[in-house]
Amino acid sequence: TGLGLPGGPTGAAGMGTHTDSEARQLGEILHVELNPGDASIHHPNLVHSSGANTSSRRRCGLSVRFISTDVHCLAEEQPVMLLRGEAVPGVNCYRSWPKYRPGYDMPFAGCESWNARRYKDVEDEAAYFSRTDFPQMEAEIREELEGFVAELND
Length: 154
Hints:
Elements: E1 2-4, H1 20-26, E2 30-32, E3 49-50, E4 80-81, E5 94-95, H2 111-117, H3 122-128, H4 134-153
Parallel strand pairs: 4-5
Antiparallel strand pairs: 1-2, 1-3
């Protein structure tokens, strides 16, 4: 069951965590029941929530925000990717698009030409995309993920 306030951006309450009582003060509560495999797409400032996941399957969340190239992302630690248009100098530092690694990544339509046409940032390439020790990289990612999950369980 989702908790949301109708009205799109005009019902926006800003970033942060809100208690149920605070949410009720913002307006009418709309309950939306999602079935397995469904997705909820809404304005990022819409107050929303969900009950505990009582199934044996994981719940996954993905947040994607599209902004024009003249909008400055204030959270420097957030990766910003240029998907279309030209970068405006001094506005954001755009992350390189990931490399396709034949024999390691799953092939996709256009994978043969992906590396030649992907967006590349010189500094990002040196810091993140110069490594080729994929098994070690995977082990480091897994270790970091397991540490994160352990923190959640504490």
